[in-house]
From TrEMBL:
InterPro entries: FPG_cat, FPG_N, H2TH_FPG, Ribosomal_uS13-like_H2TH. Transmembrane segments: none annotated. SMART domains: Fapy_DNA_glyco, H2TH. This is Endonuclease VIII. PANTHER family: FORMAMIDOPYRIMIDINE-DNA GLYCOSYLASE. One of its GO terms (molecular function) is lyase activity. Keywords: DNA damage, DNA repair, DNA-binding, Endonuclease, Glycosidase, Hydrolase, Lyase, Multifunctional enzyme, Nuclease. Belongs to the FPG family. Residues 2-121 form the Formamidopyrimidine-DNA glycosylase catalytic domain.
Length: 276
């Protein structure tokens, strides 16, 4: 799942390569990906990209006309071609690569393709006048990676909440941009059990969680800078300390990384380090 650090890196890449480009053609390959049926991708043809913005795990290509919001979901991503080499149907040079759902072709032969590698469609495209017209963006909570995000902001999310920490960190209405991978990494860094209820945290544990939250995200944002967009997912997986590493030794001391109960293998933690 692309989370805020990877989406931010993609936004930065597109600011450098797509802003100022004119959209000459669009192609919608998977009609279910378009969430604004009354507003087709064709509206974008002839418009020029003016800005690229990130909203949590969503990305907006602003143009001189309507904006295109890309909601990546669980397995969505994007590929880019500068027009110097042909692009295959997978957008990755592999026959079994992710399915291309739509393409935007720019002047100069450049092309942006949006893809989905999941077993079920999770990526969504919306043609809107304002990104906040997309309900999932309108409901986003504060971005914990933003400058000025404070302990008080996090405490407002945690105090009194009878919800498990791992689920709460992924609640986009409370904390924008965090998914399963970084929630696992943050809780490991904070030495907190992912199944603990937020309301059970002591003041010291809340402080520890805030430090881990800010540190893990800051390191992830920095690590994503300069990584080619087609390598972002692989590089992210390689950086994980516990997420996706069930059965491996704990990276810090005794113990073995295991699946978080109830996640069907989607989350991992180290019981030796993360149990009260």
């Amino acid at each position: 799942m692309p989370e805020s650090p990877e989406v931010d890196a993609l936004a930065g890449f597109l600011r450098e390569n797509a802003v100022g480009a004119r959209i000459e053609a669009v192609e919608l390959i998977e009609f279910r990906a378009l969430k604004t049926r009354a507003r087709p991708l064709d509206e974008l043809v002839g418009e020029t990209v003016t800005a690229v913005r990130r909203f949590g795990k969503h990305l907006s290509l602003d143009t001189t006309g309507a904006d295109l919001v890309i909601s990546f979901g669980r397995a969505g991503w994007a590929t880019w071609s500068d027009g110097t080499a042909p692009t295959d149907d997978a957008g990755s040079g592999q026959a079994d690569g992710p399915a291309v759902l739509a393409r935007l072709r720019f002047d100069g032969g450049r092309e942006l393709a949006v893809t989905d590698a999941g077993d079920w469609l999770s990526l969504g495209l919306s043609v809107v006048d304002d990104p906040t017209e997309v309900s999932s963006i309108a409901k986003l909570g504060p971005d914990p990676s933003a400058r000025g995000y404070s302990q008080a902001d996090l405490d407002a999310v945690l105090v009194g909440r009878r919800k498990q920490l791992r689920a709460l960190l992924q609640e986009q209405e409370s904390l924008a941009g965090i998914g399963g991978a970084y929630s696992d990494e943050i809780l490991f860094a904070a030495r907190l059990d992912p199944l603990m209820h937020a309301s059970d945290l002591t003041e010291g544990e809340r402080a520890r969680l805030f430090v881990a939250l800010r540190q893990v995200l800051a390191e992830a944002f920095a690590a994503c800078v300069g990584v080619p967009i087609d390598r972002q997912k692989a590089e992210k997986a390689a950086r994980m300390r516990v997420h996706g590493r069930a059965g491996e030794p704990c990276p810090e001391g005794d113990g073995v990384v295991v699946d978080v109960p109830g996640t069907k293998g989607a989350g991992q933690y180290c019981p030796a380090r993360q149990t009260r």
